[in-house]
Specification:
It is a single chain. The protein is 46% helix and 22% strand. The protein has 46 residues and is α+β, with helices and mostly antiparallel strands. The protein has one domain. Strands 1-2 form a two-stranded antiparallel sheet. A hairpin with a 5-residue loop joins strand 1 (5-9) and strand 2 (15-19). The radius of gyration is 12 Å and the shape is flat. It starts with a strand and ends with a helix.
Length: 46
């Protein structure tokens, strides 16, 4: 996360930028937790 933007780079190099500046902090933390859990799960199972 960088300056209230979440930047995701897909497997084939496509970049997705999500502006988080209008989202409350607790929801940002939930989103980051979800991404971390799914990233860890994908790393373990692939």
């Amino acid at each position: 996360m960088n300056d209230k933007k979440l930047i995701i780079i897909e497997t084939y190099g496509n970049k997705i930028e999500i502006d988080l500046s209008h989202i409350i902090e607790s929801d940002i933390e939930k989103l980051i937790d979800i991404i971390n859990k799914n990233t860890i799960a994908n790393t373990v199972y692939n």
